[in-house]
């Protein structure tokens, strides 16, 4: 039994806390992803290559984001999780605003490191807090609601960021999306409750004697379902973050004439219109996919826990043909229409996969197990995904004679095919899911 189970919260507070945590995660993703719609503007202004765009949007952010996630999670197993989250929000929001002052690639990359440091303190303690307060039978749906922050944040990041950049420039976009997070930090510190504060002495003692990192690693060592889920999430992150970093560039380079015509028709500049279109086409459907994945998991896991693995596997494999079709669409309009399907299907993994992790370990190890997953998935997926797509694009352009438009298209096509091993990894996690679950 987790600490939170000994100090139950009322339904009204649980809903409020879940919505606030989801809003925090929205701004987590806005501040992380806004750079993607601004990439072409930053590239021109600072005279960057594609690999530098990949480095700035991925690796520079991910290095300390992943490394610091584990020690912060270790502290979250014993400490005050709402205060950890509040401090993290304030830190990454301030650094996001500072991105607007960068005058070079090095400065922007270093400030992005600061954003990553702040964001490392968000998801592990937040998921641990949700798992301690949400009933087991609705855990996947609760986590899916929190995970709505990813598609909503991505939608707002590219849509709002593009519109602001068109009106005021990319520097102003960073400042405007960064500053509101400070208000959320204050709300988290003032209103979120740590279940351990009002828990009985026995519960507090359990928190003080939470398993060591070595004990948690020993617990996880025998959990084949956990490591296969980690492999699936890592591959999904590699594909998704690589694509997110360059989807706007793909459209700007491959459909420039259509985009210019549409911009004139709607009275918007190209970047703003593209951001709005991408946000609605992929972000909007991803919201539906995230909720659907969580609801399906709660419905079918009670009958068969392997549903935690089957739902992400089916979503990954079903999204692949649509992703390939987007990259080969004969027109921008058709590409946007096709983008609806992978936006929905590729998001179905979020609720089931993270909910399974909360059930594969003891409550006292949840934040650490989540942080280890995020360490691996984000170091490889977020850190190397955008960089790898950018490097392949640059190589195709410089060595194979591809145009910049064709180079980014074929780079993204190659990485989309990783959905095949991704689906296999998720599917294989189901083989031992029933015996590996503990709660």
UniProtKB/TrEMBL annotation:
<feature type="transmembrane region" description="Helical">
    <location>
        <begin position="306"/>
        <end position="327"/>
    </location>
</feature>
<feature type="transmembrane region" description="Helical">
    <location>
        <begin position="272"/>
        <end position="294"/>
    </location>
</feature>
<dbReference type="GO" id="GO:0016020">
    <property type="term" value="C:membrane"/>
</dbReference>
<dbReference type="InterPro" id="IPR011701">
    <property type="entry name" value="MFS"/>
</dbReference>
<feature type="transmembrane region" description="Helical">
    <location>
        <begin position="170"/>
        <end position="192"/>
    </location>
</feature>
<dbReference type="InterPro" id="IPR036259">
    <property type="entry name" value="MFS_trans_sf"/>
</dbReference>
<protein>
    <submittedName>
        <fullName>MFS transporter</fullName>
    </submittedName>
</protein>
<feature type="transmembrane region" description="Helical">
    <location>
        <begin position="333"/>
        <end position="355"/>
    </location>
</feature>
<feature type="transmembrane region" description="Helical">
    <location>
        <begin position="12"/>
        <end position="30"/>
    </location>
</feature>
<keyword id="KW-0812">Transmembrane</keyword>
<feature type="transmembrane region" description="Helical">
    <location>
        <begin position="367"/>
        <end position="388"/>
    </location>
</feature>
<dbReference type="Pfam" id="PF07690">
    <property type="entry name" value="MFS_1"/>
</dbReference>
<dbReference type="InterPro" id="IPR044770">
    <property type="entry name" value="MFS_spinster-like"/>
</dbReference>
<keyword id="KW-0472">Membrane</keyword>
<feature type="transmembrane region" description="Helical">
    <location>
        <begin position="408"/>
        <end position="427"/>
    </location>
</feature>
<feature type="transmembrane region" description="Helical">
    <location>
        <begin position="143"/>
        <end position="164"/>
    </location>
</feature>
<dbReference type="GO" id="GO:0022857">
    <property type="term" value="F:transmembrane transporter activity"/>
</dbReference>
<dbReference type="InterPro" id="IPR020846">
    <property type="entry name" value="MFS_dom"/>
</dbReference>
<feature type="domain" description="Major facilitator superfamily (MFS) profile">
    <location>
        <begin position="17"/>
        <end position="431"/>
    </location>
</feature>
<feature type="transmembrane region" description="Helical">
    <location>
        <begin position="51"/>
        <end position="76"/>
    </location>
</feature>
<feature type="transmembrane region" description="Helical">
    <location>
        <begin position="82"/>
        <end position="102"/>
    </location>
</feature>
<keyword id="KW-0813">Transport</keyword>
<keyword id="KW-1133">Transmembrane helix</keyword>
<feature type="transmembrane region" description="Helical">
    <location>
        <begin position="226"/>
        <end position="252"/>
    </location>
</feature>
